[in-house]
Structures are given as C-alpha cells and as structure tokens.
Design goal:
Elements: H1 2-19, E1 25-26, E2 30-31, H2 32-36, E3 41-50, E4 53-58, E5 64-68, H3 74-77, E6 85-92, E7 96-104, E8 114-116, H4 126-130, E9 136-139, E10 142-145, H5 155-158, E11 171-173
Parallel strand pairs: 5-7
Antiparallel strand pairs: 1-2, 3-4, 3-6, 4-5, 6-7, 8-11, 9-10
C-alpha cells in the first residue's frame, strides 16, 4: 500500500512540475521560453484597408494580418500605397503584426536575380515551401528558380523568421 501511495504521489508531483514548468513545450519543437523570445520576422504581402484598419495579406499563406504601427513610424506609414506589395519586419502574433520597419517591394525587373548552385543543393525542398511566388521547384532532385516568377524577395537566401534560408547556402543572389 505504501509503495502504491508513493508511486501516485510521485506521478502527481511530476504532472504538477510539467504543468507549471517554464520550459513547457509550446508547439511541436520549441520550449515555451524559446518560442516567446522569437526574433524579428519578415513578411511580404499586399497592403489593404478594411474597417479603417491597415492590413497585410501575406503572400506565402494568404493570411491577413492587422498591422500595428508604433508612433515613430506613423508619419512614414502615411505614404503606404494600398494594393502594393511591401516587406514588413516585426513580430507576428495570431492575426496581428507589430511593425518594426517596412519597405516597398520593387517588382520593376523582368525576372529574378537569384540562382541555385546545383553542386551545393541537397534537394531538401525547404525553399520550395517558403517561396511566396511559387518560383522554386525541385527538378531531378535539385532546386530550380523560375526567373519569371521570382520577385527577388530573398526569403530563399535569408529566411522569413521561421525559415532561416537555404540550410546549405546553395541559393545566392546573382549579379
């Protein structure tokens, strides 16, 4: 009986420790304390206004974020062009994005300026899933960039917050 009571007490203690632990897992891979301290992210998308709220429709996921603008950027935000594509850096939560900085996304060029070094590419397809324009595909086990679709956002090289860019540095900006 004493062993049974001791075992139940131990299980209860372990359960309570897990529930109130700072390192409680949040999501699949990251402890809660790491996830809450995430670095600045970048998202790219089209700016719109809905219900007097400035919003961004993210290219890669089509999720709409309400943009939260700090006071120091309010004057600059007055020059935002509705319907144009921008890159915003900041912190993302469920349906809001707190802006640290932003820039208009230049799309005046005829094609992308990124290339894949096929000797380095391992065909992991991480870049394929992150490309907001669907410009990257895997052909014969290697990433290939369609220059006509590529808008030179650079996510495949530098990442977007969750994705850190090509893990083997096989993609680079060509001159």
């Amino acid at each position: 009986m004493k062993k049974k009571l001791l075992l139940i007490s131990l299980l209860l203690l372990l359960t309570l420790t897990f529930l109130f632990s700072e390192e409680q897992h949040c999501g699949k891979h990251f402890p809660k304390s790491v996830k809450e301290k995430t670095a600045t992210e970048s998202i790219c998308g089209i700016v719109q206004v809905a219900e007097n709220q400035l919003q961004l429709v993210q290219d890669s996921t089509k999720v709409t974020f309400n943009l939260i603008i700090p006071e120091n950027l309010e004057k600059e935000m007055e020059n935002i062009l509705i319907g144009k594509k921008y890159i915003f850096t900041g912190k993302k939560s469920k349906n809001t994005f707190i802006v640290d900085n932003f820039s208009i996304f230049e799309t005046s060029q005829t094609g992308g300026n990124h290339r894949v070094d096929s000797n380095k590419c391992i065909g992991c397809s991480l870049c394929v899933n992150q490309c907001p324009e669907g410009a990257i595909s895997i052909v014969n086990g290697k990433a290939v960039i369609n220059a006509e679709k590529c808008n030179d956002c650079g996510i495949c090289v530098t990442g977007n917050g969750h994705f850190n860019g090509c893990p083997v540095k096989a993609i680079e900006k060509s001159n």
